[in-house]
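WARN no homologs supplied; continuing
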Amino acid sequence: MKYRADINGLRAVAVAPVVLYHAGFSTISGGFVGVDIFFVISGFLITSDIIDRIENDNFSLVEFYHRRVRRIFPALFAMLAACFVMAWLVMPPGELIAFGKSAIAAALSAANVYFYRNTDYFTAAANSLPLLHTWSLAVEEQFYLLWPLALMILMRWQKPLALGFVLISCVLSIAASQYWLPVNAPFVFYMLPTRAWELLLGGLLALPSVRAFAVNQSQTSAEILALVGLGVIAASLFMIDHDTPFPGIYALAPCLGAAFVIAAGIRHQTLASKALSVSPAAFTGLISYSLYLWHWPLLVFAGIYANRELLLSERVGIVIAALLISALSWRFVERPFRQRRDTARWKWMVPAAASMGVACCLSLVLIKGGGFPGRGPDGGPVVQSVKAESATFQASSCLMRGAAIPTGGKCILGSGNVAPTVVLWGDSHAAHLASSLDEAAKTTGTRVRLITKAGCAPLPEMQMLPSSPMRAGCPAFNAAALQSILADPHISLVILAGRWNTYSGVGGSLLSKDGAWPSPDVSKANFTSAMRDTAAKLAAHGIKTAVVGPAPEPPTDVLICLARASFLKMGDAPCSAMPAGRHWQNNQILANLLPPAVQFIPIVPTLCEAVECPLKSGNNILYLDATHLSRAGGHVIAPLFAKVFSAGNLTASRHQVVP
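OK structure emitted
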């Protein structure tokens, strides 16, 4: 097929928002949709090439994979080699082990599977994963293991069925994406079955029947189609954000926009195609693959080395550096390997396999070597002790993972043989209060029952979106918890606790009554409704209700921050305190959403001053990670609960919280 400068320009339209989004320029809230545009472009170009070769009786599966290796591997493994060096220099042992695991996945084109199992693309923790971006390469490579064979069968023996097959495959894939989004959003984001439709949409444009239709369109219709396509892409970049249920039907917008632009330029040169063909855009498109490969590791390793959020000037400098490195990578790595006339397949396949093997072996060495602690400390004995505490916390038999609640007198706090009169009910942000309540219960002679499940706020009849396998059992768990509480005649107080920031309109989770994706305002209304209804049901049985305010959440994992500070010999200052303003605001947001009958127990006033919230107190680390309090942090707020347990201290609250 002929060279199309406008498609290189469209690549620039795809890669630039991704880079700016990753660099923290929040104005382009939907910058991540550039990956979806890339999928459509890739599907069109590669399908066009395969069909042309099949029609000319010149297609070979071996030769296809040979070309893919020459296209993908040189720049990828050059980037991986640099990442190994940077990881060795700036990553403490624990992070180096995790890097090694992700490097194996990246080398084997399985990064999407690895990150699906280990991280959420939109969390703060993702900013510490230098190979996170390779998930999209894995999706493409997995698709192209199957797609060429399917095309061979269709174009050679079932050509009349090709259009119907691709259309049906597209519909099934996007239907699966939309259906599973409320059920398992990480799977939908990372995995091939729910992403294949984007590549298939590009492939659809390359089918002879569709190309013929595009060729026959008039200049005017092509102009309109291209302008509409660019307009839809632009709207996607600014209207979609990390709270949008994605990549279900909302991903149709950037993908269809890209498809419109491609289709409009199949025959005609439109105003849009001329604009996309200007030299800066076309050149950015040429280096887009290298730019995509290099920008993210540079941002991540710079953040690790600084051990703080990067300044605007630093982020701008890194983007400029990424452009320069990408241009060099394109000129001296990508282009030479693609243009070499030596086409002996073994001369490419053997080094490719060797590169994969070397990357995997190096990664295994890092893993088996325990991250090579001889390079530098990993936070010292105090950090290691809190890491062990964190592991114990996550493995607790009282922090449930399924839908069943603890039974048989298990998970009781306090001392003595009296029946529990208080229940602590909630998610892991309730469980991390257990040491506080245990301390308070022992000083006041109270017994407390613990009912907690990871990922499940104590909001009966509500579904938490986006869902996941861990959240799937939340409705059943909460229903069982409420029934058990109401059936216990000894209970006089229920304390509800959760990671409220993420449910009250501040974070990325939403509450739904019927499984449909609600707006943030509807989610907030659902939150208040669930609180009111739960308190009313408890009050009907003479049980009072209290809600613990959200714990201040550090900008990064405190233990990782301290490990980096120790490894890089920079002192604990970056990990000792955080600004308090946002946490006071979050506390007040929750207070405003609570119905008047619910007692509010704010913990921010105890953990924070007006300006700062400490992350350490002397040698004591107050957090287990980026959200959960440690036992030392729990000790600080234990007196709050001792007051609550004392007679007469649970009274109506006006829910006003000020610094």
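The two ends are 65 Å apart (CA to CA).
OK
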